[in-house]
Amino acid sequence: MCRVARLLAGMAACAALLAGCAPGPQPHATPAVPTAHSGNDISWPQCPAASGGYGLPLPPESAQLAVIGVTNGLPFTVNPCLAWQVGRASNMPVPRHAYAMAAFPTPAQLRGNKAQGPWPAGTRDGQLSNAGYAEAVAAVAAMAKAGFLPGMVWIDVEPHKPQPWPTSSPTHQRENRLVIGGMMRGFHDAGLPYGLYSYHRAWADITGSWQLPGVPVWATAGQDTPDKARAKCGKPGFSGGHVYLAQWYDDVRDYDMTCGTYAFTPLPIPDTPLPAPGPADQPQHH
């Protein structure tokens, strides 16, 4: 809108000059203040109790965006009312992103998915990377079944009591990075823009504070205030990436706001960095 106004002002000035009139002094334009878009993220807790959720409220009609959880708390699971929630958001209508949980694979998941990706399965590094890739493939399949093509997919990296990340050594943190890197590659290969959701302590414990400045960040202030969430927008994210979306929550809802001039649109698909696997574990190109 400001650009159009400047063009119109310039055209008017030119017309005045052509008519032999000197235009008067123009007032200095006041820079526009970015308006944040706000809304909520939802997932299985917003499902009815009969479907395994808590029956928590869905976004109100005033919501301007929605982030919908694809998984049922862990990878290789599906939000039991994903299609219903996608349809509800479509009918409002609001733009929609998705988020999918990441986790370190169980022994059974590793056995079943160690070759289900672009890395050779002859070493543990390749197997873990492939397992992370398979987590993304499973989430993409769930979205496709629900008719859900989100503008972004956020990879949720945080502690899980039912399926914990190993964090007791740098070796464990490196293996966690392989899983997360494989998941990023999976969304990349599916042609989906992706980013990371976490918070500083969890990211440090799980990944050893892996720095990924080229990967977008959705940052959470936790159970706090909108002002604390807004403050996340002006700082580098937990992984060194730019913060595009900030969250806070209470006992009833999770709330989200966009940062700066970001309008909840799809972002460029980042490259997929991985923690220096050995030569035998370089991804195969198809």
What does this structure look like?
This protein is of the alpha/beta class and 286 residues long. It is built from seven helices and eight strands; from the N terminus they run αββαβααβαβαβαββ. The chain has helices spanning 2-18, 82-91, 107-113, 124-145, 170-189, 200-207, 226-232, and strands at 38-42, 66-69, 96-101, 153-156, 194-198, 217-220, 243-249, 254-258. An eight-stranded mixed barrel has the order 1-2-3-4-5-6-7-8, surrounded by four helices. Strand 6 (217-220), helix 7 and strand 7 form a beta-alpha-beta unit. Helix 3 packs across helix 4 (124-145) and helix 4 packs across helix 5 (170-189). Residues 1-33 and 276-282 have low confidence and may be disordered.
Order of helices and strands: HEEHEHHEHEHEHEE
Spans where pLDDT lies below 50 across 5 or more residues: 1-33, 276-282
Overall outline = globular
Secondary structure tally: strands: 8
Tally of individual helices: 7
Widest beta sheet: strand line-up: 1-2-3-4-5-6-7-8
Structural class: alpha/beta
Distance between the termini: 45 Å
Largest sheet: 8 strands, mixed, barrel
| Helix share bin | 25-40%
Q: Tell me the strand percentage band.
A: 5-15%
* Integer-rounded radius of gyration: 22 Å
What is the mean predicted local confidence, pLDDT?
A: 87
